Amino acid sequence: MINKINALLKEVENLKAANAEELEALRIKYLSKKGEISLLMNDFRNVAADQKREVGQHLNKLKEATQNRINELKASFENVQTTNDDIDLTRTSYPIELGTRHPLSLVKKEICDIFGRLGFSIAEGPEIEDDWHVFSSMNFAEDHPARDMQDTFFIDNNTEVSHNVVLRTHTSSVQSRVMESTQPPIRVLCPGRVYRNEAISYRAHAFFHQVEALYVDRNVSFTDLKQALLLFAREMFGEDTKIRLRPSYFPFTEPSAEMDISCNICGGKGCPFCKHTGWVEILGCGMVDPNVLELNGIDSKIYSGYALGMGIERITNLKYQVKDLRMFSENDVRFLRPVSY
Ligand code: DAH
After folding, report:
1. Is 74 exposed, middle or buried (0-12, 13-18, 19+ CB in 10 A)?
2. Which of 168, 218, 221, 176 minimizes the C-alpha distance to 195?
3. Which of 190, 289, 332, 336 could form a disulfide with 212 if both were Cys (CB 3.0 to 4.6 A apart)?
4. What is the mean pLDDT of the chain?
5. How far is CA 28 from CA 12, 64, 110, in A?
6. Measuring from atom 5 of ligand 1, which residue has the nearest CA?
7. Is the beta carbon of 188 within 6 A of some atom in ligand 1?
8. What integer pLDDT is reported at residue 80 of this predicted model?
9. At residue 189, what are phi and psi to the nearest 5 degrees?
10. In whole angstroms, what is the distance from residue 43 CA to residue 45 CA?
11. Which residue, judged by its Cα, is nearest atom 6 of ligand 1?
């Protein structure tokens, strides 16, 4: 091995490159992860213990010499005088920084990964939707307050059009889109942006993001729902997280529930974040109302299902303690940068 190292040492000391591309090719050949020197480093593991010291010293010398030679060649290019014509004065003067993922994208990905491991696949639907998919097919009564102008952005309220066009107020509309075109078994996850006519403040925005899950098959029971919820809470917020289900009401589920998790900031002892209750609400869920199955072309005598929906901003707040919802859409790099991979 020492002979091989010495031969390489001779080779690198005489390296030559005519331009930056050639130099880069040399760097890759010798110093990259799969380069000659890394290969030798791998072989080093098999060197007998009593020879490790000597071989190691040679290897380090080779690595240093290669790096030095490459730096030398690089410096020789950089010192070459360029004419003014070669200089791009419009280029940014500082190294351009790598971007980071938006916190909401990170959390969305985490939610999708967890449910992905439970066999859910992603389904998407339009943000500009019709009344049928957002409300009627989801069992909202004709006079349900959610249809009210206060909540919903209407795009086309022309009565001559057979259905009103709205900005979807929840991702539950994608449930309907999936069910009308697919027969069970259905196991989908629907992430996306939703809109509501709210005054913008630190705690409310006119648009935000949700993830919806829908599972429809034979014999799906509330136990299946609870098991999925518990697994999700533990994966997302840690092994010790506890869940609690409170009875609730949604037009599209029966029975319906809201899920709280033990406050992950104070560990359930009580703090200002959980209003000293030890619990924070994170999602709505329930068994898909048989009416919803029927309205979307699925036989409710054969099939049952569960559904759940959560706000991504809410989950992100819990993970990263973002106090002002507006931060998510302001694109302030000071806010975006710390949450990088
Ligand atoms: N669509 C509800 C909302 O926007 C959230 C929700 C609750 C979705 C219960 C569900 C569910 O699928 O089962 O507030």
Report:
1. middle
2. 168
3. 190
4. 90
5. 13, 15, 35
6. 309
7. no
8. 64
9. -125, 130
10. 5
11. 309
